[in-house]
């Protein structure tokens, strides 16, 4: 099977494939005893797969008082388990001050993750994570093969490394189209608009799932009916958003 990093079509000068000892990562994270146990039980190995900077991408860096984009790291992490994945992902994203793309592999499933960071006001050599963005866990089926073919980083628009990295994050967000429409389009419309619509859809979907759980637990009929009514309203909202996503994708074909 084609390695995920190969879809990125990186310049050979960017490839490193250097193993990072878990001990070094744990030293940077400074986890609690319980967090350390979780990380050791979850992570099989970590590799620095590639370094993207001005010399390997020919894209200029970006730095101001808030953001630091001089290098983008691509990390490959082989997992022993998906259990406690959110904690593992959060900790690995926080290790590096620079922006990072982490490819997680567990058996034949993949998750690709990145994060929006800014420079810490208390310390210029540390970053604060504002948002973590990731794909869902997926196997490389026909639709995800199409999605991954669009991960050719040479095709991403950019003014600088910040713009470049944000384009990558948008691409990660767009993977959820497959779970909503059961297919991935060959062409997208305005990906910024699509990503905003996807956020709205995911938020509504999360609320809907919570209501489903509440509905199952509720014993009083009046409350069950009220929850059911809210669920129906959310379904209508989700269908409207889905139609808007379809229209934006259609606009991209024109």
DSSP helix fraction: 40-55%
The succession of helices and strands, N to C, reads HEHHEHEEEHEEEHHHHH
Amino-to-carboxy terminus distance: 34 Å
Structural class per helix/strand content? alpha+beta
Counted up, domains total: 2
Q: Main beta sheet, described?
A: 6 strands, mixed
Rounded mean pLDDT is: 93
Indicate the radius of gyration in whole angstroms: 20 Å
- Low-pLDDT parts are none
Count of separate DSSP helical elements: 10
Q: Total number of β-strand segments?
A: 8
- The geometry reads as globular
Share in β-strands = 15-25%
Strand line-up across the major sheet = 1-2-5-6-7-8
Task: Please sum up the structure shown.
This protein has 254 residues and is an alpha+beta fold. It has two domains: 4-181, no CATH class; 191-253. Helices cover 48% and strands 22% of the residues.
Structural summary, described in words:
The protein is an alpha+beta fold. It folds into two domains: 4-181, no CATH class; 191-253. Helices cover 48% and strands 22% of the residues. The chain is built from ten helices and eight strands. It has helices at residues 4-7, 22-29, 33-42, 54-57, 85-95, 142-149, 161-173, 177-181, 191-217, 221-253, and strands at 15-19, 43-53, 62-63, 68-69, 71-79, 100-106, 109-119, 127-134. A six-stranded mixed β-sheet has the order 1-2-5-6-7-8, sandwiched between helices. Strands 3-4 form a two-stranded antiparallel ribbon. A hairpin with a 7-residue loop joins strand 7 and strand 8. The two termini are 34 Å apart. 25% of the residues are buried.
């Amino acid at each position: 099977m084609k390695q995920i990093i190969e879809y990125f079509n990186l310049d050979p000068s960017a490839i490193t494939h250097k193993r990072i000892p878990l001990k070094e990562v744990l030293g940077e994270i400074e986890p609690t005893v319980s967090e350390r146990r979780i990380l050791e039980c979850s992570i099989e190995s970590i590799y620095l797969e590639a370094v993207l900077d001005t010399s390997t991408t020919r894209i200029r860096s970006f730095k101001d008082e808030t953001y630091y984009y001089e290098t983008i790291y691509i990390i490959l992490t082989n997992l022993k388990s998906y259990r406690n994945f959110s904690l593992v992902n959060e900790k690995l994203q926080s290790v590096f001050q620079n922006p990072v793309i982490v490819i997680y592999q567990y058996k034949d499933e993949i998750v690709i993750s990145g994060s929006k960071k800014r420079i810490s006001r208390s310390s210029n050599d540390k970053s604060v994570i504002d948002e973590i963005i990731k794909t869902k866990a997926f196997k490389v089926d026909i639709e995800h093969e199409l999605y991954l073919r669009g991960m050719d980083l040479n095709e991403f628009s950019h003014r600088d490394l910040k713009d470049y990295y944000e384009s990558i994050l948008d691409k990660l967000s767009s993977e959820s189209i497959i779970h909503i429409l059961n297919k991935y389009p060959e062409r997208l419309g305005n990906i910024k608009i699509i990503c905003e619509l996807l956020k709205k859809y995911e938020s509504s979907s999360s609320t809907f799932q919570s209501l489903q759980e509440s509905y199952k637990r509720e014993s009083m009929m009046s409350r069950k009916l009220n929850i059911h009514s809210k669920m129906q309203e959310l379904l209508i909202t989700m269908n409207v958003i889905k139609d808007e996503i379809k229209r934006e994708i259609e606009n991209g074909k024109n």
